[in-house]
Design brief:
The complex is a heterodimer of chains A (166) and B (641). Chain A is 45% helix and 11% strand. Chain A has 166 residues and is α+β, with helices and mostly antiparallel strands. Chain A has two domains: 62 residues; 83 residues, Glutaredoxin. Chain A has a four-stranded mixed beta sheet. Chain A is elongated and about 50 Å long. Chain B is of the alpha/beta class and 641 residues long. Chain B folds into five domains: 132 residues, Glutaredoxin (3-Layer(aba) Sandwich), CATH 3.40.30; 201 residues, Rossmann fold (3-Layer(aba) Sandwich), CATH 3.40.50.11540; 69 residues, Ubiquitin-like (UB roll) (Roll); 87 residues, NADH-ubiquinone oxidoreductase 51kDa subunit, iron-sulphur binding domain (de novo design (two linked rop proteins)); 58 residues, Alpha-Beta Plaits (2-Layer Sandwich). In chain B, strands 2-1-3-4-5 form a five-stranded mixed beta sheet, covered by helices on one side. In chain B, α4 crosses α5 and α21 crosses α23. The relative contact order of chain B is 0.08. Classes of the chains: A alpha+beta (166), B alpha/beta (641). Chains A and B meet through α3, α5, α6 and α7 of A and α3, β8, β10, α19 and α26 of B.
Chain lengths: 166, 641
């Protein structure tokens, strides 16, 4: 079989994806749960997992791939060692969030949605979760850092860079 | 399976713990909002301090209370029995208790009995002579019904919830016919809390009378509108109130399954809802025989994965159905064909939560507050350029000005009101007149707003730029468009292009006409996402005309927010400039012939230098300085240093 993902069967066995999908069933609304489980285990959804999910839930592979690429929280590539999510909500935005983004994009060495060349640091577009008392903020591996200013973001970015280059 | 009386009896220890405890209790509000400011660290530090001093007191975690601005908050409850100090039964709220000061706090409150101290926010009850919460502007204006138990009970304990009356509404509903339940919900005039404000009772009746079987209750807990977190409050602080409402709806509509679709950005809400569902199953509140009756109902929590359009009901249904969350054309409506073809009813968290309150307390009590056409209350969140941020509950009819001035404390020091952004990016931005509107969907629409929205209020002060907000919102809507309708994904993309060109000083006379044309075209999109996509730009055209025209024709940004319409220059050589140069992320500031200069081609206008050297750096209007149109912004390049 040829496909965009190459020959996946061997990798799939190595990935033990099928075991992760225990208890999930077709027609139960389990696709997102299946992909969450795979991503929780590997940090991303390896292309080789698509076949296993598609067989388990009796869905065409295109449908699994379609969902994978539609939802912004699924990753198709390994995550960076440290992920910085920038909050794009309005409370953060009007309080200087754009300045925070400008600094992060220059100092982390990657644009929004990308990772640095060595995959040590990545920048992710975050969505408002209602911790607006800390606006403008970012989440460093899920931990809120805020309220930030341009200058404190410079400090943060330099700290992150030196911490991960040890 | 146990009946309701057995459940209440089993929850008696929890009731005693809550109401008749024999030693002081410190309750830390722990939810996503307070965890962000160290609530877990405070909880651990309090426990350590109490243990280290060998004090006879409990330290527990409870749900959030909405007081984001005061967090981490601690509710002190002194035992009702006498002989335990000067204020038996007192309940007092303390604010901003950081982990570092936890030991001092414990010493003051529990050892020295100093209830009036630096952390005092206000007394909820008892404790004569202390400042009262009822006198606090944030608190006084509220009618805390749905939020009555938030910040009081442990959201991970079903017994806490039952001790406070949870599932009494379900028990009552199961003693009524489905028609009677729907009549009561209809009589309450409850309107859907998603922002659509469709009558909940009528919607339930659609499904009850639908021929489609089986049937399902769906809860829209996707709450994607940035600046709103009312649904998160319910799920994180009182999850059983939602389960109860869905079961009541299931009984009324003849549904045997329920789906709670929660956005991925709310992991704690997912965790607490899943735990609550599991506990409800163990107690026979979900399952084959709910409360021992001939009624089967079970719930499944579905976790989203990051998509704004999944908040649109047909997009949400598609997302549950193992697919991309793309909204569909209606009809068929969910009552005829919803999740996996089942007859379905989709309500917001707030609608189910309100139905729970109505069934627990009765419709007569429900209509005692609010207005004639909108009885009852609704949860709102407040954020943006205000003094106080948080979540609160108001009766309908409250004036928006009261929310801004009393709850929010008005604009930050030295600033003044500019606009209100209610209900997320699709509902536009409103100028001064909004403050005189009553908080009701009809009043907002009649006043000229697109709508009231699902509970989020983001206030802007006079430092904010409406054109910049338009660009950000249209970009957000473009980014979140599902891609089905060309009007939507193409229209929003075109608006972003024009707005960004205007923000770079390239405004054209034809732009206003183009905005109007695109806005008219977008209204023919299939779903709300495209139909309401132009709201913010239409509001800007109508109500912020002068500001928009100044950008287009004057090529200036009056608030100096739009990056392409300003540049940074050295205002005077100053000792702070060396540090500013060190902080510049693009090394745009350098020393040339003993004087610092800013290289405009490198400058990204991040404002770091002006923050560090406010006297030495100033922002100037590029066009006032006669510099002509701005160049295209430089591409993103990592700095060398």
């Amino acid at each position: 079989m040829t496909s965009f993902r190459g020959s996946g069967d061997v990798n799939e066995a190595a990935l033990e994806v099928t075991a992760l999908l225990d208890g999930l069933a077709p027609g139960e609304g389990d696709l997102l749960e299946a992909l969450h489980r795979v991503q929780y285990r590997y940090g991303y959804v390896p292309a080789a997992a698509i076949g296993a999910v598609s067989r388990k839930l009796r869905l065409p592979e295109a449908r699994v791939y379609g969902a994978l690429t539609f939802y912004s929280e699924f990753r198709l590539t390994p995550p960076p060692e440290t992920l910085v999510s920038w909050c794009s909500g309005p409370a953060c935005y009007i309080k200087g969030g754009e300045n925070v983004r400008l600094v992060l994009e220059r100092l982390l060495g990657c644009a929004m949605g990308e990772s640095s060349a060595d995959n040590r640091l990545g920048l992710h577009l975050g969505q408002c979760n209602g911790t607006c008392d800390n606006a403008p903020q970012v989440w460093v591996d899920g931990e809120v850092v805020g309220p930030l200013t341009a200058a404190t973001t410079v400090d943060l970015a330099r700290r992150l860079k030196s911490a991960t280059s040890l | 399976m146990p009946g309701y009386a057995e459940l209440v009896a089993a929850a008696e220890p929890a009731r005693l713990r809550l109401e008749a405890h024999d030693r002081p209790r410190l309750a830390v509000a722990v939810d996503t909002s307070t965890i962000a400011i160290g609530a877990r660290a405070t909880l651990a530090a309090l426990r350590e301090a109490v243990a280290a001093r060998g004090l006879d007191a409990d330290v527990i975690a409870v749900g959030g209370n909405g007081l984001s601005f005061a967090g981490p908050t601690i509710a002190l409850a002194l035992p009702p029995s006498t002989g335990s100090g000067q204020a038996p039964g007192a309940r007092v709220l303390y604010q901003r208790v950081e982990a570092e000061s936890a030991a001092d706090f414990v010493a003051a409150v529990l050892e020295r009995g100093e209830l009036d101290n630096a952390w005092l926010l206000g007394a909820l009850s008892g404790a004569e002579g202390l400042r009262r919460m009822d006198d606090h502007p944030w608190w006084a204006i509220q009618e805390r019904r749905l939020m009555g138990d938030m910040g009081l009970i442990d959201p991970e304990s079903i017994d806490d919830a039952i001790a406070r009356g949870a599932y009494a509404g379900l028990e009552r509903a199961l003693g009524m016919t489905p028609e009677e339940v729907i009549a009561e919900v209809t009589g309450s005039k409850l309107l859907g809390r998603s922002g659509s404000f469709f009558p909940t009772g009528r919607k339930w009746d659609f499904l009850r009378t639908s021929a489609a079987t089986p049937k399902a209750m769906v809860c829209n807990a996707d709450e994607g509108d940035p600046g709103a977190w009312v649904n998160r409050m319910t799920m994180e602080s009182d999850p059983h109130a939602l389960i109860e409402g869905m079961a009541i709806g299931g009984w009324a509509c003849g549904a045997e399954r329920g789906y709670v679709y929660i956005r991925d950005e709310y992991p704690l809400a997912v965790e607490r809802m899943e735990a609550a569902v599991e506990q409800a199953r163990e107690r026979g509140l979900l399952g084959d025989s709910v409360l021992g009756r001939d009624f089967a109902f079970d719930l499944k929590v579905v976790r989203g994965a990051g998509s704004y359009v999944c908040g649109e009901e047909s997009g949400l249904i598609a997302s549950i159905e193992d697919a991309r969350g793309m909204p569909k054309l209606r009809p068929p409506f969910p009552a005829a064909s919803g999740v996996f073809g089942q007859g379905s009813n989709v309500n917001n968290v707030g609608s189910y939560h309100s139905a729970t309150w109505i069934m627990r307390h009765g419709v007569e009590k429900y209509v005692e507050v609010g207005t004639e056409r909108n009885p009852g209350t609704m949860l709102f969140t407040l954020s943006g350029q205000v003094q106080r941020v948080g979540c609160f509950e108001l009766p309908f009819g409250t004036k928006a000005r009261a929310v801004y001035e009393q709850c929010g404390g008005g604009a930050p020091a030295g600033r003044s009101f500019k606009a209100l952004q209610p209900g997320g990016p699709l509902l536009g931005v409103l100028p001064e007149f909004v403050l005189d509107l009553a908080i009701e969907p009809e009043a907002f629409r009649e006043g000229g707003a697109i709508g009231l929205g699902g509970g989020g209020f983001v206030f802007l002060d006079d430092s904010a730029c409406v054109v910049d907000l338009c660009a950000q919102f249209e970009w957000f809507i473009e980014d979140e468009s599902c891609g089905r309708c060309t009007t939507c994904h193409g229209g929003t993309q075109r608006m972003v292009e024009i707005l960004r060109r205007i923000q770079r000083g390239g405004g054209r006379q034809s732009d206003v006409g183009k905005f109007r044309l695109i806005a008219d075209t977008l209204r023919y999109s299939n779903c709300f996402h495209g139909q309401f996509a132009p709201s913010v730009i239409v509001n800007a055209l109508d109500w912020f005309t002068e500001e928009l025209n100044e950008h287009i024709y004057g090529r200036r940004c009056p608030t100096q927010v739009c990056k392409g319409l300003v540049r940074y220059e050295i205002a005077g050589q100053d000792g702070d400039l060396a540090k500013a140069a060190d902080y510049c992320p693009t090394a745009a500031i350098s020393l040339r012939d003993d004087a610092y200069v800013i290289d405009d081609a490198l400058c990204v206008r991040c404002d770091a230098c002006r923050e560090i050297a406010p006297a030495a750096v100033r922002i100037v209007d590029r066009f006032e300085a006669g510099l002509g149109p701005a160049p295209e912004p430089v591409s993103v390049q990592p700095a060398e240093r």
